Amino acid sequence: MDFTLSPEIEELRRRVGEFVQDNCIPLESPRESFDEHENIPLEKLAGLRDKAKVAGLWAPQMPKELGGMGLSMTEQAVIYEAANFSIFGPAALNCAAPDDGNMRLLWMVGSDAQKEKWLQPIIDGKVRSAFVMTEPHPGSGSDPAGMMRTKAEKKGDKWVVHGHKWFITGAGASTHFILIARTSHDPRNGLSAFLFHKDQPGWEIVRKVPIMGPEEHGGHCELRFDGLEIPEENLLMKVGDGLRATQIRLGPARLTHCMRWLGMSERAMSIAAEYVKDRESFGTTLAEHEGVQWMLGEAAMNIHTGRLLTMYAAWKLDQGDRARKEVSMAKVQVAETLNKTVDTCIQLCGARGYSRDTLLEWMYRYARQAQLVDGASEVHKMIMSRFFIKEGRDFWSWDA
Q1: Model pLDDT for residues 207-243, shown as the tens digit of each residue
Q2: Which of 12, 29, 231, 260 is the most buried (most CB within 10 A)?
Q3: Helix (H) or strand (E) holding 144
Q4: Distance between alpha carbon 4 and the CA centroid of its chain, in Å?
Q5: For residues 76 and 61, is the Cβ–Cβ distance under 8 A?
Q6: What is the pLDDT of residue 228?
Q7: 115 secondary structure, DSSP code
Q8: What residues contact residue 48 under an 8 Å CB cut-off, 6+ apart?
Q9: How far apart are CA 232 and CA 239, in angstroms?
Q10: How far apart are CA 140 and CA 153, in angstroms?
């Protein structure tokens, strides 16, 4: 593939960078202005989103006719990376998880009526959404097809749901939900996808699960379903297509995580670079110490490796390929890079990096989830291994 950016995308990248620098980064300090979950207060986020819409930097992943920017996956890779140079950038541009993946799924598989009712309000920023799949043990985690226990049973013209979910990102602030539930015991076609509204009876938020890092708006919630009724028109795709819906959503969603994490890694590097260029030790700046140069050089190389893997996987998706092994490779590499980079930058900044005087400690706690969300790194390594066993040396074949 050709990695050259078109003049239009390069200009867009520059505009996003300026927007983030001028509007998002100033809101990251003082940290005392964050909400109780260490995120941007919603009233401040609303102002950022209004500015992003006026600037034409809204919903990069959605078609122009629906109010988005109509970018391809490779173009999104450039913009998402630039957006997450601020921890508030993706939310400001409406390209943050979980809405990002939910919008993409609804746009790809929803009926026209479902897009109008369930998708358009998310694109417009009027509501938030959540994807409801993960369950407590012994329910579904990385193996939803085999372990899903939440059931939806057809009674008359409605589906009635009973079950238990947890770690549902953003559920506490969401209005629209996409639920995956078991509708049969077919090993491949036993799950179905449904849409429901927060005001429907028959379900509850049990609690917001306390987590190590800063929270998304709405937290990571535990939900219980006890007779939620869903009409037939709110079935997403067909009965038995729940696993397909999950795969359609999670592949690109994993990659957009990588795009954003690269931007955060670069921001961490910029914080460390600014410090080591000024801080003196033993008669010279830290930046002139050979050991510091090794640390910065390795981190910079790892970020660049992650960018190449991410862009290649995005290009494969643009070609209509599912890019399963390419997405898995990017997911593992970039998740580990984010963790290693932030750790390195804290080490370079010393006690200041460990303090709340910079964002590095926030990033450090946030980064640990990267090796877990949307499939643990070990699961993705299993996927890569299976491809290698099947393909042999063709695992590394060039695209013809």
Answers
A1: 999 999 999 999 999 999 999 999 999 999 999 999 9
A2: 260
A3: helix 144-147
A4: 25
A5: yes
A6: 98
A7: I
A8: 23, 24, 27, 40, 88, 91, 92
A9: 10
A10: 18
The whole-angstrom separation of Cα 178 and Cα 322 is: 22
Return d(Cα 17, Cα 165) in angstroms, integer: 38
Q: Which residue has the tokens 């290649």?
A: 312
Rounded to the nearest angstrom, the gap between the alpha carbon of residue 240 and the centroid of all alpha carbons in its chain is: 26
Encoded amino acid at 270, one letter: S
Burial class of 112 by CB neighbour count within 10 A (0 to 12, 13 to 18, 19+): exposed
List the structure tokens of 172. 């506490």
CA triple 58-256-103, angle to 5 deg:
55
In CATH, the number for domain 244-396 is: 1.20.140.10
Task: State both tokens at 365.
Answer: 């706690």
- At which residue do the structure tokens 């989103």 appear? 49
Residue 400's pLDDT is 80
Residue numbers in the chain where pLDDT is lower than 50? none
Residues 6+ apart with CB under 8 A from 228: 160, 161, 196, 200, 201, 202, 203
**Which pLDDT tens digit goes with each residue over 238-296?**
999 999 999 999 999 999 999 999 999 999 999 999 999 999 999 999 999 999 999 99
Structure tokens given for 391: 């393909």
- The class that CATH gives domain 7-123 is mainly alpha
CATH number of 129-236: 2.40.110.10
